[in-house]
């Protein structure tokens, strides 16, 4: 038995953005050689076997083409004291690496930002169209975490926030 298509009213973009704003996410900076990088709030674990992650990047990103050509990324997971770093890598038209200390990552030699709570080195496996974004699927080559890392930087309701045991405050 087939169903006739259901007519759906057009979804209000602001209402959609507000609803998704109620879902807190971590904040990372995706980097590659060049160096190049951008702030990302859409990182997710995709698979444990094989180890894979995915993230989304805007189709209008000036940084994405540089990363796509390299075919490898370092996912720098930010701690709550790194809101300024997140803002720097989100700003368009600036030298994001000016005055940003980093070192080559251990396995792939990609920019690993100083002070991050964890880093994931990965190679790009696939890129899929997704509306106004690309969905990027990566195979993890190496991970490194910092035992003394601070709590994560969180993106919630359109703002970078700190998490603490009493509740969330703005970064």
Describe the protein in words:
- The protein contains three helices and 13 strands; from the N terminus they run αβββββαβαβββββββ.
- The protein is mostly beta strands and 171 residues long.
- It has one domain: Pnp Oxidase, Chain A, CATH 2.30.110.10.
- It is globular.
Describe the secondary-structure layout.
Elements: H1 13-21, E1 25-26, E2 28-32, E3 36-40, E4 44-48, E5 51-58, H2 64-70, E6 72-77, H3 83-90, E7 102-104, E8 111-113, E9 118-130, E10 133-145, E11 153-156, E12 159-164, E13 167-170
Antiparallel strand pairs: 1-11, 2-3, 2-6, 4-5, 5-10, 6-9, 7-8, 9-10, 11-12, 12-13
Describe the structure concisely for a colleague:
The chain is mainly beta and 171 residues long. Helix content is 14%, strand content 45%. The strands form 3 sheets. It has a 7-stranded antiparallel β-sheet with strand order 3-2-6-9-10-5-4. The protein has a 4-stranded antiparallel β-sheet with strand order 1-11-12-13, with no helix packed on it. Strands 7-8 form a two-stranded antiparallel sheet.
């Amino acid at each position: 038995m087939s169903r006739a298509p259901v007519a759906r009213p057009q979804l209000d973009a602001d209402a959609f953005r507000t609803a998704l704003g109620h879902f807190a996410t971590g904040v990372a900076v995706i980097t590659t050689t060049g160096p190049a990088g951008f702030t990302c709030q859409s990182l997710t674990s995709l698979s444990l076997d094989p180890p894979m992650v995915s993230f989304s990047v805007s189709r209008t990103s000036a940084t994405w083409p540089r990363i796509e050509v390299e075919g490898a990324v370092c996912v720098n997971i930010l701690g709550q004291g790194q809101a300024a770093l997140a803002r720097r890598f989100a700003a368009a038209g600036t030298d994001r690496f000016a005055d940003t200390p980093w070192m080559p990552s251990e396995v792939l030699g990609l920019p690993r930002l100083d002070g991050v709570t964890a880093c994931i080195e990965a190679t790009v496996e696939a890129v899929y169209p997704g509306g106004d974004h690309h969905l990027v699927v990566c195979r993890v080559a190496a991970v490194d975490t910092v035992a003394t890392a601070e709590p994560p930087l969180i993106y919630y309701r359109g703002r970078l926030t700190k998490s603490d045991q009493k509740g969330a405050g703005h970064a």
